Amino acid sequence: MKTLVISAVSLFLALGGAAVAQTTTVVVPGEVKTYVQKQETPSVTFEGDVAVGTALPDTVEIHTIPDQPDYGYVVVNKKRVLVNPKTRTVIEVIQ
Q1: Which of 79, 84, 78, 49 lies closest to 65 in space, CA to CA?
Q2: 45-94 belongs to which homologous superfamily?
Q3: Three-state secondary structure call for residue 9
Q4: From start to end of 10-88, where are the E strands?
């Protein structure tokens, strides 16, 4: 019985830790969003749904944002998307 309880608690903690790790929120500075919304950038086509956490392929050009090395952007399927340029993952879909 003691082994069963310890196993159940271990499983609960492991799953709980994974759930906490997935709920990280990124707060994007307002000037980054403003900059991206003002840019005239052509849209690229991406197969599938573009959502937070989606990794973009190397074929998608990520545009830089002046003085903001932690953020990049791209217009994908006519939506403006903020991207982490190091990991190529979507941080936020603006529109």
Answers
A1: 84
A2: inner membrane protein cigr (3.10.450.160)
A3: helix
A4: 63-64, 72-76, 79-84
| Radius of gyration, CA atoms only, the chain | 18
CB contact burial 59-95 (16+ within 10 A = b; e otherwise) = eeebeebeebeebbbbbbeeebbbbbbeebebbbbee
Predicted TM-score (pTM) above 0.85:
no
Please, are residues 73 and 59 in contact by the beta-carbon 8 Å criterion? Answer: no
Domain ranges of the chain: 45-94
In eight-state DSSP terms, residue 47 is S
Mean pLDDT by 10 residues, the chain (95 residues): 44 44 71 94 91 94 95 95 96 90
pLDDT at 22 (0 to 100): 52
